[in-house]
Amino acid sequence: MTQRILEAADIESLDPSAIPRIRMPERLAVFAPRAARLRQLASRGNPIAGYLRLMAALADAQQAVLAHFKAQPPSPELIASAQQYSMPLIPALSGARDPAWRDVLLQLLDRIEAAGPPLTPPLVALFARLRSLDVAALEAQADAIFAQRFADVDPASAPFIMAALQVVWTDLAADIDKRAVPYLDTPGLCPVCGSHPVASTLRIGGAYDNYRYLQCGLCATEWHMVRSKCSNCDSTKGIAYQVAGSPDADAAAREAESKNAALKAESCDECHTYRKIGIQAKDYEFDPFADDLASLTLDLLMGAEGYRRASPHPWLWPEQTAGAAETEGDESA
Questions:
Q1: What is the predicted pLDDT for the residue at 319?
Q2: Residue 89: in which H helix or E strand, if any?
Q3: Global pTM?
Q4: 181-185: long-range contacts, CB 8 A cutoff, minimum separation 24
Q5: 1 CB burial (10 A radius; 0-12, 13-18, 19+)
Q6: How would residue 272 be classed by pLDDT, with cut points 50, 70 and 90?
Q7: Residue 80 to residues 77, 91, 235: CA-CA distances in angstroms?
Q8: Of 240, 201, 193, which is closest to residue 219 (Cα–Cα)?
């Protein structure tokens, strides 16, 4: 079911100065709630329930490691330069990563193993392979993940590598004063680290009420973007919402499903991509990272209708050949 949203003029007429631009991550409010939400979604008969429970254990491990971790903060000179040139404060693609992320990765693997239940043989083999990778191989994987070079990303190990990087960048972002975050020339990227958003939330309550916030898939920073714009190409044309309703429902039933859905795909007819958006008024416990991962049915629906994801989920990477990756890159240009 497709539902048109407010016209651009209706939303852009609002006073932007009254809208909080940034929501910085809180150290205790990212990974632990995400783990709880993943388990909740797994308990609802989700087709990938086993994977969601594994990722919940990974999020628990992230929270435990973050509690005792401090990354190397950016220098005042780097922050000043980023502000001067409207660049991300702690860019993921800079190449100057804190090497501590590799130790974080090992700690995550150890904690998942210790938490139980016993790992499956494929996971045992995967963890052994991750532990055996040298510095160059690990850094190469991190580079490929950040650059979204799908042909170079190992889909099996990528979620765990990304999880380690998330701990580092979330720690850094949590210590940043939101007043120091610059405006970027590309509003669809995280103003803190320059990464892609995973999904967005239409929030309720206080100063954030009824505003859409994109959440970074790396550092968990949230930033406001008006609902009249595509978060991928910035177009205001052809924006629509779609839901994963019953295919056999009549028109009235589909309309009701769309009205009551807490999770929708926000599609753009200009770039033919989509990202998901959660409506907190319909489900207050919505977590953009967890709910996006747990809604593959909606991804299948959008793919069947000719739309592609604006960016992959950080914990679910596609297997692609070099040729396929180059083709997708050309389409995104």
A1: 78
A2: none
A3: 0.89
A4: 181/21, 181/22, 181/89, 181/221, 182/82, 182/83, 182/86, 182/87, 182/88, 182/89, 183/86, 184/86, 184/87, 184/88, 185/86
A5: buried
A6: very high
A7: 5, 13, 31
A8: 193
* pLDDT at residue number 186: 85
Average pLDDT over residues 175-188: 91
Cα–Cα distance for residue pair 136/131, rounded to 1 Å: 13
CA angle 110, 290, 288 (to 5 degrees): 135
Residue ranges and CATH numbers for the domains of the chain are 2-12+186-325 (3.90.1670.10), 25-178 (3.90.1670.10)
pLDDT digits (tens, 9 = 90+) for 206-217: 999 999 999 999
Confidence of residue 96 (pLDDT cuts 50, 70, 90): confident
| pLDDT tops 50 at residue 154 | yes
Distance CA 280, CA 242 (A): 17
CA–CA distance, 72 with 172 (Å, rounded to integer): 8
User: In terms of Cα–Cα distance, which of 227, 194, 262, 206 is closest to 20?
Assistant: 206
For the four alpha carbons of 238, 241, 247 and 250, in that order, the dihedral sign comes to: negative
Strand partners, 224: 213
Of the candidates 289, 303, 333, 320, the one whose C-alpha atom is nearest the C-alpha of residue 149 is: 320
